[in-house]
């Protein structure tokens, strides 16, 4: 009976570690996507080191889970007490780190608000200056998503640097202009009319709403994935310790 129980525990341990392995691969993939994302969201929030640090933490946690899931599978199959103990301690450290990161994300969630992005845009945006990373990234986002500013074209009335560089002659930057098709290589419907702020020739919807709608499903998916990973890690630690105690 004891042997059957140990064997069952071993296979359960393997299954849970396999899910940790898959969860780590998913987190690693999300972290890599954030860091190399072609639409440049990383640069938009570059003024806030906390958000960039979060992306690096996600990358590191994904890599560690990927490795530890593999080690846990090996420890379970080979019934190696040293590997199991090593696995338990590191999973415990990662579990506590992820829990801390989730608490910090909740505390600093105001850094992802509409007001934060509006403040950064009005303070740093320089129009068509492609040598400025912040402005070039915003231009890329506005063209890609067919949107204008954070809330809409009215944001650029208060963009001090943009107003200064254009000598108050342009109501909106060229990136807000409608194109056919809506891509960087698309043809502007009317650049002159757009820069004068004519509604028919510019994208009127703000990027905050457009991007939020586009990624709403993925945000909930990422949250569900994170909760699932934490639950799996907790069960894996329990099974690892039970298997460790059962091995003679």
UniProtKB/TrEMBL annotation:
Keywords assigned by UniProt, alphabetized: Glycoprotein, Membrane, Transmembrane, Transmembrane helix
GO CC annotation terms, alphabetical: plasma membrane
Membrane topology: Multi-pass membrane protein
Presence of the UniProt keyword Glycosyltransferase in the record: no
Transmembrane regions listed in the UniProt entry: 12-36, 56-77, 84-108, 218-244
Signal sequence residues: none
Highest taxon of source: Eukaryota
Keyword Transmembrane helix: yes
PROSITE patterns: TM4_1
Quaternary structure and partners: Interacts with ORAI1; this interaction regulates ORAI1 exit from the endoplasmic (ER), and/or Golgi, and trafficking to the cell surface.
Biological role: Plays a role in the cell surface localization of ORAI1 and may participate in the regulation of Ca(2+) signaling and the VWF release in response to inflammatory stimuli.
Record's protein name: Tetraspanin
Organism: Enhydra lutris kenyoni
């Amino acid at each position: 009976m004891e042997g059957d129980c140990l064997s069952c525990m071993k296979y359960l341990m393997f299954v849970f570690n396999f899910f940790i392995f898959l969860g780590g691969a998913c987190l690693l993939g999300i972290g890599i996507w954030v860091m190399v994302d072609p639409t440049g969201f990383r640069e938009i929030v570059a003024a806030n080191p906390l958000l960039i640090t979060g992306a690096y933490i996600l990358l590191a946690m994904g890599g560690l889970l990927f490795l530890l899931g593999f080690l846990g599978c090996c420890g379970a199959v080979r019934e190696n007490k040293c590997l199991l103990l090593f696995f338990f301690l590191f999973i415990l450290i990662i579990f506590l780190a992820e829990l801390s990161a989730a608490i910090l994300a909740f505390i600093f969630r105001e850094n992802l608000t509409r007001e934060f992005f509006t403040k950064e845009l009005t303070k740093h945006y320089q129009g068509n200056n492609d040598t400025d990373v912040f402005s070039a990234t915003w231009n890329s986002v506005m063209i890609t998503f067919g949107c204008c500013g954070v809330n809409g074209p009215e944001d650029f009335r208060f963009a001090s640097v943009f107003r200064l560089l254009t000598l108050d002659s342009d109501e909106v930057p060229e990136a807000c202009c409608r194109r056919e098709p809506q891509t960087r290589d698309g043809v502007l419907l009317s650049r002159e009319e757009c820069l004068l702020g004519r509604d028919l020739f510019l994208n009127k919807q703000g990027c905050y709403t457009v991007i939020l709608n586009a990624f709403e499903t993925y945000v909930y998916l990422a949250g569900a994935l994170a909760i699932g990973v934490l639950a799996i890690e907790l069960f894996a630690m329990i099974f690892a310790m039970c298997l460790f105690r059962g091995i003679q």
